C-alpha cells in the first residue's frame, strides 16, 4: 500500500478579488516569464503557463498603481544571478523594489505623496542593472538606484507629465507625454539629469498648402467612406504654438510609445485611431482607424519581432494587426504613380467579454520573450490568458507566410520543432521594394487565431462569510483537506483548498447574500442566507445543507422560511449532532443534524438570545465505554445455558437493554448529551442540556455588572470567554470558578473564536476596527491589527485555519491567511506547495540556475543528450526542476537540434534578454559566413558576405536589429521609408527633409524634383534652385571635387555638419562624411550612412571605429559593440572580448559554434578560449 501523506503546513497567502480603479495600469509581464498584477494594496505574481498565483506581496498601505519587472539585458553569472526583482508604486507615492522569491523588500522609495504616474527600468544594463526612472507628479522625473533606494538625480519640466517612453534603439532618447504635447529628450544619461528642457512639440491637424496638396489622378476614384475618414485623421507633429484644436487633440491621446520594430518611429493612440509617426520627418506615415460602428481602443502594445500591434478594445477584445506596405519599385522616379501606404491588417481577434457597470477590461500585457501570448486583466479580478496559434491555411487576399525554420536555422528533414514558439517563427518578414520573396520551400501560408489557454478568477464583491472546515486530527489525517468555505453576496459558496490556494468548488446555493456557514462534517456544511426585509420586516430565510463530493443541496428546514423574522445565527454542536438556529424576533429552534428533524421550537416567552455557544464537553466517551461493556456482557449472556440465564439478576438485564437502547438500534450513532449556553439582553447566562430529543433547562448565572450587552461567546476546555458591545472581554475559568474582565477599548466585539488543537488556548477576536489574538491562559494580547495603524482595510469576518494561522476577510475584497502575528501574507516561494510544477529558473539558487542552464546547453561528457539531471551533482537541483519541460523534452533530445538552435531555445526558456539578442545575431552571421565559405566566395574578416550568398532561412536579419542588418537590405528599407515619407509630406519642411534623405541615399534625380517644387514666394526658393542645379551638374572632374570638398569641410568646421555631409556624399566621399560625423559625435548617423552608401571594406572600417567607441569607458556599451563585430564577421575579436568581459560560458559556446561552422580555425588561441567547453559546468 502506498503511504498517504498530508501537508498540514499551510502557507500564508492572499485570495484576491475585484480590482480598484487605481489598479487599472498596475500589470506587467516580465522577461522572467511571470505576470505581476496590483490588486488594491497587494501584488499578485502569476505563472501564465499553469495559471497559478504563486506569490502575493503585501507591504503597500495604498492602492498599487504601477508594477514593473526588472530587465534581463545583462550577462548572468554568480555575481549577477537570475533574480526576480519587481518595482511597484502606489497612490501615496511610495515605490518598493521587491525580492519576489522571499517576499521581502529590497528598498522603499518615497519622494512625494501623490500617485506615481509612470516608471520603468533602464534597458541598457552594461553600466548598471539597478536604475529605475519614475514620474513623480506633477512634473518631476527622478532616476533612482533600485537596489539601494538612492536618488541619482531629479529634473522638473514646465508641463504636467503623464507618461514616458524610452527609445529602444538609443538609450539617450526619451519621450515624455505631457498635458500639452510631447517633450523629446535627446541627452538622457544615468550620470546626470538632462541639460535642457527638451524639444517641445505639439500635436495638431495639418493645414495643407496649395503647393503641397497633390491632386488625385483622374484614373483613381475619389475617396469615400472609410478611406475618406482615414484622410481626415492624418495629423503631424509641429513646433508651432499650440492652438485650441491642438490641445484638444492632445487631451484625447491615450498612449505614446516608440516602435521597437523599427528605428525613429513612434505610436500615438487615440480612442478611434492609432497614428504611426516617422520622427525623422515629424509626420504621420500610417493610420489605423476604426469605423464609425467599431469599438474604440483602450491600449496598444507594439511588437519588436515583427511590425505588429496588439490592440485592446473597450469590449475586452484583443486584436492583432500586422503591417504590410505596398511595394513600389525602388527605381521609380515618381512614387505617387503607385499606392504607398503603411497598412496594419487585422489578422486575428479574440472573443469579447460581457461588459457591465462593474465589469470592464483594464489592461493587456504580452510576453516580451515570445510576443505570442497576451494576458487581459478585468475589473472583476479575472486574468484571461490568450495564446496566438498559427495553422497552415490559404487566407486569400493578403496571404501571411510563416518561415519553415526553427530557432534561426533551416529545419532538418526529420527534425522536431516547437510549434508557435515565438511571433517571428509564426510570421515571416515583410518584403521590401526590390527584394526577392523566399522560395516556397522556406515558407508556408498560415492563418492566426487566439486560443484561451488559462483563466484566473477572483473573489466576487464583498461582504464574505468565512468558515474553516473541522480541524486536522489523528483520525482524519488520511483524507483531510484544508477547505475554507466562503459565502458571498451573490448567494454562492466558494470552497478553497488552502494548500494550493485554488478554488475547489463553486456552488450556487442561495438566491441572496450568505450570512453564515457551519460545517457538519469534513465533506458537508450548512449555510444560511436572508433576503431583503419587506415592509413588515419579514424576510425569506434559506438554510441549505450541501454535500461537497456530489454538490447536492437541499433545504434543511423544508418548506419553512418564507415571511418570517431573519435568522441571526446558527451554531452546530461540538459533535455535529445538534443545530441551534437563532432568529431576530422569534424563539430559537433546535434541530437534529443527522436526521434533519426539528427537536424543539422554544416557547414564545423564551428569552431573546444575544450570544450562544456550545460546550466542548459531552458524555460520548462514557457512553461508548458503557455500550462496549454492555455488548460484551450481552455476548456472554447469550452463551449461557437456560439455568444460568435464569440466575442472572433482572437488574443486569435491564442495564443491558438500556445500553442497547442508547445505541439507537445498534446500527445508528450514539446520541450523546451536549449542552450550550446563551445570554439574553440583560446579560444573564442560561445553560441548556440536550440529549436525544430531550431538552433540559439548567443553571442560570446572573449578569456581570461590569459587562454591557453580551455580543458573543467562545468556549474551550475550562475557559469561557464573553465579549460585549462596549469592547470588554470577560474570561471565565470554570475549573477555578474565577472570572476576569479586560476592557479592550476597541468598541463592539463582533466575533470571538478559539484556535483548534488540544491545549491551544489562543483566542481570535474581531472588532469593528480590526482584530486581536489573545492568550487566554495568560490573559494577555498576542497580536493586534487596526485600521489606519497596520492596515487600510476593514475586517469583515475571521476564523482560524490551523492552530497557528488565522484567515481574515476584508473590505478590499481579499481573504488573507496570516500567521498569528497578523503581519504580512508574503512568503518564500520556494517553500510553497504548488498544484502544478512551475518552470521558472529564477526561483532556484544562483548556482543551481546556472548549472541547469549549462546542463541544457552542452553535455560534453556524453555523445547524446540526456534530461537526467542527477548526472549533475548540485544539491539544490532535482528532477522536479526539469519536469515542467516535459512537453519539449523530445525537441531538446533531438540529435538534429544544432548548437545554435539549442542556445537560442535555452535563452528563450530562461527569458535571458542579453543571451537571446547575442545568439540571434550570432546564429545569423555564423550561418551566413559559413554559407559564403561553402560557396567558395572569399569574404575577408570584417566584411559581410555579398548579397547573393545570403542563404539563411530568413534571408536577412530582421529590421529591428537596425544597423546590424545586411547593407543591401538596410539600404532598400531606407529607400522604401523615404518614398513613404515623400507621399505623406504636407509642408515645405517635410519636402526639404525628404530631399536631404534622398541626396544621402544617392537618389539625386528624385531629390532634384523635390527641390524644384519649392514655390517662388518661399524664402528658400533661391537656395533650393541653386542646390538643384549643383546636384544636376556635378562632374567627377578633379577641380570640381576639390572645390566641393573644400566648401564641405569649411561648412562642417563652421557648424553646418548636415550640409557638409550632403556635399561630400554628392561627390562620392561618403567615407569622409562618416569620419566627420564620428568626429562630431554623430555615431549612429555615421553607421546609418556607412550602411546605405559605402562599399563593404569602407563600411567595415566605419563600423569598427564605432565598436571601439562603444567599448570606451564613457560609453560602456560593450554588449552593443560585440553585436556590431558579429555583423562584420570579426569572430576572433568577439571571442576575445567575451573572454575579457569574463563571459566564459558564452565565449566557450561561441567558439564551439565557430569551429563547427568552419568560420574559425582550431589553433592555440581558440583552444585557450574554448577550454571551458570541456568542463561539465561553468559557473563564472
From TrEMBL:
SMART domains: WD40. It is found in: Cytoplasm, Cytoskeleton, Cilium axoneme; Cytoplasm, Cytoskeleton, Cilium basal body; Cytoplasmic vesicle; Golgi apparatus, trans-Golgi network. Residues 22-320 form the WDR11 first beta-propeller domain. Residues 481-823 form the WDR11 second beta-propeller domain. InterPro entries: Beta-prop_WDR11_1st (IPR057852), Beta-prop_WDR11_2nd (IPR057853), TPR_WDR11 (IPR057854), WD40/YVTN_repeat-like_dom_sf (IPR015943), WD40_repeat_dom_sf (IPR036322), WD40_rpt (IPR001680), WDR11 (IPR039694). Residues 986-1158 form the WDR11 TPR domain. Keywords: Cell projection, Cytoplasm, Cytoplasmic vesicle, Cytoskeleton, Golgi apparatus, Nucleus, Phosphoprotein, Repeat, WD repeat. One of its GO terms (cellular component) is nucleus. The keyword Acetylation does not apply. GO terms for biological process: animal organ development; cilium assembly. Coiled coil: none annotated. It comes from the Eukaryota. This is WD repeat-containing protein 11. It comes from Oncorhynchus mykiss.
